[in-house]
Amino acid sequence: MVLQSVFNRFSLLARKLISGRARATPPIDLRTVSIINFRASPNTTTDIFTNSKNPVSLSFKILLLNNPTTTVKNFTISLYAFHLRHTLTDAPDEVDPAAQLLWENLAKLGATTLPFSALKNLHSKLICYQNNYEPQHEQGRPTEWLTDYGSIDLGSFPTTTGIKIQGNLQPFRLHDTYAVDLTLSPESPQISIDITQLQLFKPASLLPASIQASIGQTIWIYAEVDPSEDCQQLAEKLATAFLAGTPSNPVLNHQDKLFGSFLFEYQTVDPNNSQNPAEQCQIMVSLNNTQADTIAKTTQAYDWLLRLLSYYHKIHYIYRLSRESYARSRAIYSKLDRQMRDFPTQIADPKTRLKNLNKLLTKLPLYAINYQSNLGDIKAHHTAINTNIKNYETCLKKIQAIGDCPQFWQEFLDRTCDRWQNQIQIELDYLSPGQELFGQMVETIRGVVETEQAEIDRRLERTIQIVGTGLAAGGIVVSSNPYSLIEKKLTFQLTGNLNTVHPFIFSILISLCAALLAGFLTWLLTLSNPNSR
Fold it and tell me: How confident is residue 1, by pLDDT bands cut at 50, 70 and 90?
């Protein structure tokens, strides 16, 4: 039901779950690392009442038939999206190639499904846009806001039921990440909303297929309900209705309380892209059935809650990147293992040994560079996830100091984060020796190649010595004959008498014999000299 009159002065804040204007002192933003950007693919949605083949639509209709009169008040839907702005590999004046994608997609929503003129013209509100996207204007600002005047009032648009939907947008830059809070609510918080009217808020346009936030996103639904309402059943209805007309299904992960209100955490699962994290979305449903002071406390904790969600998604994002780097490293390592097993075969045949080894020398250095690069990425991911876990813990402690907090947030820190930290460290310990193996393998091959090449060079040198000595000896014999004899007229008459052989031919025969004798003697000398081999 509606909050007591003491909370009426928070009517504007009641239209947002955690989009308060009071700014708490932000946590120390330790340096974080982000490396690769994922993009979701656009998806087409259909109307929930016409898509009878859709399992979500069918279950949604069943829920409506069971309780068609369920209504809520002070209803809000907030999108918290986090998108990579830059990485450590980018220069100070550079950003990720898709850094502006979040703002571009939000502006597209303003031109299509969410007809807010201010959202359509979002570029004119952000300091990172002049004529085009110019992120250098963000440098040196004392605030995390990406506007000069705080939040952006998007105004309202009418619906076919007569209810007007109003919107508010808060854009931030949190170090290396763009963050946005887009909140939709009825124009009056006193308007009762039933489950079927949730589609008036165009929920499909807030899903990952449209937003394409590279780090992740959370949908937060807040509503005040009657104390007799079954909150768990209502939360399931809301989560199912939000995904109606899409192939995704909500899966309940946890439930607890936050600042006196029930909090249900759902994860969307797309059966067509169950392994694609970019197509998944976290949905939080907060239901206040006791008139708790949830609004005031979430206002107080807004900064910490925003950052908690940011670090939560960053931890998942970085761990996902570490899985990819580990897979690439393992693939390269398996190639090295095959090369080591095949090494005896490669050098078995002396005729092809040098050729095979030279081929290996062209491949292994490239493998080694890629392996070292991926191993360096894993080390960077390990540092980044440790940093973000510390930041997450800081935010969680600040929220816990304000009021009751979901236990599953603490369990995520104690169990999941600890397991992922240890997993990455174990993989680093496992893969690090491979870096030395690559170096040893390359050095071994180079040693064998140098030995083979030296042997070939010595053989060539020995051949040159033999041939050179023979030619020199033959030349000496030829030069020792008097020119007067050689200049004698050459005749070709066979008499059977050696005295009739022309001196020139005789000289050639003698020099040839001398050359062969000298070459043979040189071969014997080099054969008996180990240093010449």
Answer: very low
Quickly count: other Cβ atoms within 10 Å of residue 367's Cβ.
Answer: 18
Assess contact for 9 and 299: CB atoms under 8 A: no
Dist. CA 468–CA 46, nearest whole Å: 90
DSSP letter for 490, please. Answer: P
Per-residue pLDDT, averaged over 257-267, amounts to: 95
Q: What is the DSSP letter of 74?
A: E
pTM: 0.74
How far is the C-alpha of 522 from the C-alpha of 466, rounded, in Å?
Answer: 6
- Measured distance CA(108)–CA(131) in Å, rounded: 17
Burial class (CB in 10 A: 0-12, 13-18, 19+), 489: exposed
Reported as a pLDDT band with limits 50, 70 and 90, residue 336 is: confident
Amino acid at 309: L
Q: What percent of the chain has pLDDT over 70?
A: 65
Which range of 53-57, 215-219, 495-499 scores highest in mean pLDDT? It is 215-219
C-beta of residue 182 within 8 angstroms of C-beta of residue 152:
no
Answer left, alpha or beta for residue 408, where phi above 0 means left and psi between -120 and 50 means alpha.
alpha
**How do 216-224 and 71-84 pair as beta strands?**
antiparallel
Backbone φ/ψ region at 496: left (φ over 0), alpha (ψ -120 to 50), beta: left
Q: What is the amino acid identity at position 353?
A: R
Say how many C-beta atoms besides its own lie within 10 A of residue 144's C-beta.
17
Give CA–CA dist 512/477, Å, rounded: 9
Q: How many CA atoms lie within 13 A of 286 on its CB side?
A: 27
> How is residue 28 annotated by DSSP?
P
Looking up tokens 């003129």, which residue turns up? 117
The predicted structure's pLDDT at residue 72: 87
Q: Are the C-beta atoms of residues 295 and 3 closer than 8 Å to each other?
A: yes
Residue in 17, 12, 8 with CA at minimum distance from that of residue 299: 17
> In angstroms, rounded to a whole number, what is the distance separating the alpha carbons of residues 242 and 226?
21
Q: DSSP labels for 418-454? A: HHHHHHHHHHHHHHHHHHHHHHHHHHHHHHHHHHHHH
Pairwise CA distance, residues 143 & 174, whole Å? 10
